[in-house]
Amino acid sequence: MTAIRLLLVDDDPLVRAGLSFMMGGAEDIEIVGEAADGSEVEALVDRTKPDVVLMDIRMPTVDGLTATERLRGRQEAPQVVVLTTFHADDQVLRALRAGAAGFVLKDTPPAEILAAVRRVAAGDPVLSPTVTRQLMEHAAGGAPDTRRTTARDRVAALNDREREVAVAVGQGRSNAEIAAGLFMSVATVKTHVSRILAKLGLNNRVQIALLTYDAGLLEEDGHGAEDGH
Question: Do residues 47 and 78 make contact, with C-beta atoms less than 8 angstroms apart?
């Protein structure tokens, strides 16, 4: 089994030490580096080639949001999980829009942080759809008209099947759940998701969920409030 290469980024040395102690004990996690500020991240990523970056949002020189945007704009970017002390935070939403695969609260139990890193490394989002919805509604107060119009224009590039898959992703459903609900194989679902990402220029499933929310597709669907897990 190949260990997940993890980079820790937090300006608090005690937090980094705690995370390092907690994560380093897992057989499938290898901590390849630590950074105290977002300004150090790109050089460290080049040197250590992490699979996942655990990124604090609030740092003194370059914050985690800016560092996430810079990382996700690169070729072969690592996945980013944002660390935050707030559940519903405008900056968390901005980090997700920038391409972070999810967020975890700093007081989350260690086992759950480990599980989040493993899920993201495997290509799955960390967020439950319920949390995503609450976060989006709190931070955005509903999608403004201009954002909705832009999102609808982008979604128009999808064919009917891709649109169905995109809505299911927005509901937080796993590939297996989407396959069962739409009567297709898991491999076909993965193909559709890849095409959606390519067509819309998106980074990950979280961004698909945000776009379907912005476009109002989850409100149109009768299952918008369900948690897909």
Answer: no
